[in-house]
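Late entry, S-adenosylmethionine complex.
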Amino acid sequence: MRQNRPVPFKISSIDSLGQGVSKISERITFIPKTLSGEEGEAEIQAEKKGVAFARLKNLTKSSPERITPVCIHFDRCPSCHYLHTSYEQELILKKENFEKLFRNLPLPEIKVIPAPRRTGYRNRIQLHYDTKKRTLGMLDARSSEIIQVPNCLIGEDEVLKKLKELYSNELWLNVASKNPESVHVEIYHKDGATHLNWNREYASGGFTQVFQEMNEKLRIEIADWYGTEPKKVLDLFAGDGNISNNLPNSGRLCVDIYTEPKESEFLSQSLYDEKALSRVLNVLKKKNLTPDILILDPPRSGLIDLNKWLEEITPARVAYVSCDPHTLVRDLQRVSGYHLTGALLLDFFPSTFHFESLIFLERK
Ligand SMILES: C[S@@+](CC[C@H](N)C(=O)[O-])C[C@H]1O[C@@H](n2cnc3c(N)ncnc32)[C@H](O)[C@@H]1O
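Prediction complete; structure with ligand written out below:
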């Protein structure tokens, strides 16, 4: 099919990436920023393995759930996915997609923890730039276009202040790294200061959860589940120990990749290294620590051999925090010997299809 040609669509469902799914003439087409029941015309942007990806061109039938987006960039910007509908509807769609992914696992009723607001929450945002084209903004991976977003609403006040400053009189062109001429910059508000990181890794100033009020809600849910009795804890992908810091413990080991030396409760170890499990077991043995509780909070890639970790460590209970429900399901499907006792959807990333999941497991 020729690209940019308008094609008719009719949306039958919304997928886990927040895209409308249209199946006109047997051909599956994914169209962001549409809603179930909507019809109209879309413009094909790309095709892959017999499916097409398209951009909304016009609507001939719109959903009663459609609202006017609060952000003027929403129609073109690839970063937010749900501002064309109410927050209640966004949460319903997220919950439905979470349930669908878990269809082969015995999932208890999902507890949804909504966000206190839909915009103005991110303590860091990543922008792409191209000094030759004089563009700074969000990268549309499908068209490779950089969409300029001077009025973006997603960041905390301090982040948005810095964003406006960069756009003002194209100031960013004076401060952008010219070598290379195009990649990305992160605006990161941490410990009361706003930093600009040119072409460094995501959260290179040290990881913190992006939405601080939601982080507090996560910590409260885990503390309620954990109880008041001190226990022995292994916290994997622990960062600065955010999740386990406030839990009463009778011994703790936090594991992550640390660039600076830390106290003995913190072990610097890549958890994707094939020897990671045996190294952690050795350290636990030396510390005479047999964890009752395992907490893990990996990046999107998850922990594919979680089953091996559980077989060796045999914690009585597990809290798995995940920012990608696809890898979470993949990892849990390989686990045996544990019941799934709780499932929560914490909306750390309102307006987008992303969210955090929290799963509790108990040894049988
Ligand atoms: C989603 S964050 C969670 C951090 C922490 N639990 C928190 O709440 O702030 C994922 C963490 O995984 C760590 N990480 C990434 N790759 C890793 C690896 N190969 N081995 C160990 N930790 C890794 C990152 O440094 C980051 O701290």
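The helical segments are 87-101, 157-167, 172-175, 212-226, 276-286, 306-313, 325-333. Will revisit in the morning.
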